[in-house]
Amino acid sequence: QLQLVESGGDLVQPGGSLRLSCTASEFTMAYYAIGWFRQAPGKEREAVSCISSNEAANYYADSVKGRFAISRDNAKNTVYLQMNNLEPEDTAVYYCAAAWTVTTVLSEYNYWGQGTQVTVSS
Fold it and tell me: What is the pLDDT of residues 40-50, one digit of tens each?
């Protein structure tokens, strides 16, 4: 089954930054909208940010607006999530996923990664 691979998760102090990467080895991500989701312990998975295939459209959850930035490099088959001014509430497993259009609906994403852990703590 086609799968995405996330990387870049780490332990960081509040106020710090991380850049997550999402790539795929077996399909061309350029044809898909890519979404970043996160799931904290005991909570439902939620949409964080999404970007369309041509970068014309994107989405940010209110909780991350002004702090996170999504981008893509189709030549490298990679989508990034730059996370700045991290807060303890950002602690979660972060997943990337591919869909045909920008959407926050999880069921519309066809391919998922295994996730990368982000922990924000002093």
Answer: 999 999 999 99
Burial 12-26 (b: 16+ CB within 10 A, else e): beeeeebebbbbbee
In SS3 terms, the chain reads as: CCCCEEECCCEECCCCCEEEEEECCCCCHHHCEEEEEEECCCCCCEEEEEECCCCCCEEECCCCCCCEEEEEEHHHCEEEEEECCCCHHHCEEEEEEEECCCCCCHHHEEEECCCEEEEECC
The type of residue at 54 is N
Residue 111 neighbours by CB under 8 Å, 6+ apart: 1, 2, 3, 4, 24, 27, 32, 97, 98
Contact 4, 98 (CB under 8 A): yes
- What distances in angstroms separate CA 18 from CA 23, 43, 101, 104, 120, one per listed residue? 16, 22, 26, 22, 10
* pLDDT averaged over every residue in the chain: 95
* Distance in angstroms (rounded) separating the CA atoms of residues 80 and 116: 13
